[in-house]
């Protein structure tokens, strides 16, 4: 079950934000970590089987103030209906006929009176 966890953390500087993201990123099952909110004071963790209480406890221990705001299940986005691609039209079949040419000798070349040769 994929879930989204939002934790409000006291982060006054970029160093605190980086530390919060590092703490969240090493937790088991975390897929992504982001900072959100108007004051950039919320750590949003998306993952599979992440322990939200443990995450909040670790953030509180390292940064001083952390409150679990919400935990919600992330439902997969439905894929837009795709029409199956029809098979491409087959290339027109070319006719491969073999033609045989027969050359027959009529015996005229042997005659001395032949005007062609």
What's the short version?
With 117 residues, the chain is of the alpha+beta class. It has helices at residues 14-25, 52-63, and strands at 2-9, 30-36, 42-48, 66-73. The chain has a four-stranded antiparallel β-sheet with strand order 2-3-1-4, with helices on one face.
Question: Which helices and strands appear, and what pairs or packs with what?
Answer:
Elements: E1 2-9, H1 14-25, E2 30-36, E3 42-48, H2 52-63, E4 66-73
Antiparallel strand pairs: 1-3, 1-4, 2-3
Helix pairs in contact: 1-2
Structure report:
The chain has 117 residues and is of the alpha+beta class. It is 21% helix and 26% strand. It has helices at 14-25, 52-63; strands at residues 2-9, 30-36, 42-48, 66-73. Helix 1 (14-25) runs antiparallel to helix 2 (52-63). The longest helix is centred in the N-terminal third of the chain and has 12 residues, at 14-25. GO terms for molecular function: metal ion binding. InterPro entries: HIPP47/16, HMA_dom, HMA_dom_sf.
């Amino acid at each position: 079950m994929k879930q989204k966890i939002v934790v409000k953390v006291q982060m006054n500087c970029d160093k605190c934000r980086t530390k919060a993201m590092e703490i969240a990123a090493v937790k088991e099952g975390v897929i992504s970590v982001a900072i959100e909110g108007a004051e950039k004071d919320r750590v949003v963790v998306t993952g599979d089987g992440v322990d939200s209480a443990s995450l909040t406890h670790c953030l509180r221990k390292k940064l001083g103030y952390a409150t679990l705001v919400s935990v919600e299940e992330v439902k997969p986005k439905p894929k837009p209906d795709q029409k199956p691609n029809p098979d491409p039209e087959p290339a027109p079949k070319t006719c491969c006929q073999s033609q045989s040419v027969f050359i027959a000798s009529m015996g005229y070349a042997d005659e001395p009176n032949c005007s062609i040769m």
